[in-house]
Amino acid sequence: MKVKYLVALVSACCASVSWALEPFVVKDIRVEGIQRTEAGTVFSYLPVKVGDTLDDEKAATAIKTLYATGFFKDVRLESDNGVLLVVVEERPAIAQITIVGAKEFEKDKLKEGLKQAGLAESRIFDRSMLEKAEQELKQQYLSRGKYGVKITTTTTPLDRNRVGINFQVDEGKTAKIRKINIVGNKNFKEKELLNAIVLRTPGLLTWFTKEDQYSKQKLGADLESLRSFYLNRGYLEFNIESTQVSITADMQDIYITINIVEGNKYTVSEIKLAGEMLLPEAELRKLIKLAPGDVFAREKLTESIKLITDRLGDDGYAFANVNASPQLEQEKHEVAFTFFIDPGRRVYVRRINITGNNRTRDEVIRREMRQFEGGWYSTSKINQSKLRVDRLNYFNAVNIETPAVPNATDQIDVNVEVKEKATGAVMFGAGYSNMEGLILSGSVAQDNIFGTGKFVNLMVNTGSVNKTYSLSYTDPYFTRHGITGGFDIYKRVLNTRSLSSVSTFNTDTTGAGLRFGIPLNENDSIMTGLGIENTKLDLGPNSPQRNIDFVQKFGSSTINIPLTLSWRRDGRDSAIWTTSGTTQRVFAETGLPGGDLTYYKLDYQLRWYYPLTNIFTLMLNGELGYGDGYNGKDLPFFKNFFAGGNTSVRGYNISSLGPRDASNRTLGGNKRVVGSIEILFPMPGMRNDRSVRLSAFLDGGTVFGPGGTRPELEGMRYSTGIAVTWISPMGPLKVSVAQPINNNPGDNLQRFQFQFGQQF
């Protein structure tokens, strides 16, 4: 058989080839040399069909096309009496990838990174991709400070034209920042400047925070923080001249040098307004936080621009542009600013789009929106809408964007994106006491049923002290005006025998009630309720005389008609991650005449949040409670206030503070005082995670009232410690470790406490 070679071999770089070929008509096409690739795949890429006339140009194009698929490392075209033979040599396939010696990263994540670099099992092996993947793997380690990492790659041929790839990783030690030098500072000590940045030398917590590990991104962020430090203190001409990062020969120690020029400190000499001022100048000037004579601060300038932009946004000017132009007087070290105002066109909202709510219905979110479709755009209404959706507590995150409508100069859309969280959960509470051991409780709840925004809660609390079985229903929009309606059916059993700190008695209460809530404005609402309940009492053998006298007077079974009235104000900036604002709550309960019990209880709580920095938030909490009887009757002892535990004074056992009997058991009281000072901050190394928050706290509080026989154990108690709150998918987890400050030998302590889930 006479065979004429049309093409011997064409390199991957597609070198020029000289052809000596007489064109011929292709009668048939055969593929030889394939093992894994289907012949049909070759035919689909081959730009030559039966009946075509093959010449030099078409042959070259065919070879280049088959090479471009990446399937083959050698391609030849031969002819045999009009039959075109396509002879290929396949590239091997990757059968397996193994990574040995990797400890810093999970192997699955490393393989995912290799896959993004083009290297994965079952893919065609390409040595250039292997080199690229090896560099990508090395970069992952360099980002963690592993500058001494060594990666050895071996390729092992396997049967059926396959290969196995092994990455042998020698991670080495993590390089640490040994010294950060700031050169050129004259007005501030180096220590003060180092406190303004994140990168630092090894310390007590850097093993966890990784702040002693260098990365280019971290250094860039720190340089901007350093710039902000100076610009917020008047140094308008501050400049970072250069930065040098060096590493020792053993790849273990990193040294950073930052060269700065502080410049002079500038004060503001004058503030001017220019441009199209749609608002009175006096109103605009009130929004500017800089005044003549003030030391220049960039953060105040930025805030002023935002306030003016937002104010114009309230009148529908969504694309207002405000620029502050500085005029420097270098000899006097003064700067004047001219605020140029361009309101742009007034726009209205075309459409509100909601995404991310796979479970919650659109109407549940839309009824919280204060910005309406077809209305003029308003920045404050957009912000208020976001806050109200946030406060629904159905979502982990709420984001609102306002893009312009294409081909329209006076319209925008409002895109609301939410990230839903679980609203039904099995919840647990637990604590450990040195006197009682492990204390467990639990409950089951379901909110936002079927995505309607209605609450249907079936609560089952089977704690050793409190047992609660209740069915609650709440419709937050019982009327279209936002009036809330609901009912409760419950059975509560209180057994204090297992509490060594509380006087022994049992109550078994069965009741039902109706509730209605009325919103007064965006932040204030009132709630009222009326119910009826039957309480059966069972006193222990060592009950105090006060409890015995009550049963003798009212009997062991009483009927109560409780009327409740409460007012709540919520002025927090966020219910998910609060940094500023206040919440207040006033709660009143009274037993109406017609029942066996006539009493009243008042309770007030105030929480105040204040941002100390962009990381730390101060939270102050205060609670006051008072109760008494009327119509010649006393406050029922089972309606007393109690204090102690992880919701009041941490470090002391639940309900263990206040008046006590001769057996050192808590009686409760008709007056309650509780307060706390708490510093909230993110988990180190998880600054952007809004589900975990740490705090350092100082708690104080107690209960006052008659009947105590051990006055030496009464009075205020204080504790201090640390706590962590995690909003987990199953519900909030709160853990605290507290050290009592002024405890007495008879106090019941509980230094470690945790609660998983909500309290009911």
From TrEMBL:
GO cellular component: cell outer membrane
All residue ranges annotated as the POTRA domain in the record: 24-91, 92-172, 175-263, 266-344, 347-421
Lineage: superkingdom: Bacteria
First and last residue of the signal peptide: 1-20
Compartments where found: Cell outer membrane; Membrane
Pfam families named in the record: Omp85, POTRA
GO biological process, one term: Gram-negative-bacterium-type cell outer membrane assembly
Keywords from the UniProt entry: Cell outer membrane, Membrane, Repeat, Signal, Transmembrane, Transmembrane beta strand
Role played: Part of the outer membrane protein assembly complex, which is involved in assembly and insertion of beta-barrel proteins into the outer membrane.
Family (UniProt): Belongs to the BamA family.
Subunit architecture: Part of the Bam complex.
PANTHER family linked to this entry: OUTER MEMBRANE PROTEIN ASSEMBLY FACTOR BAMA, SORTING AND ASSEMBLY MACHINERY SAMM50 PROTEIN FAMILY MEMBER
Protein name listed in UniProt: Outer membrane protein assembly factor BamA
Name of encoding gene: bamA
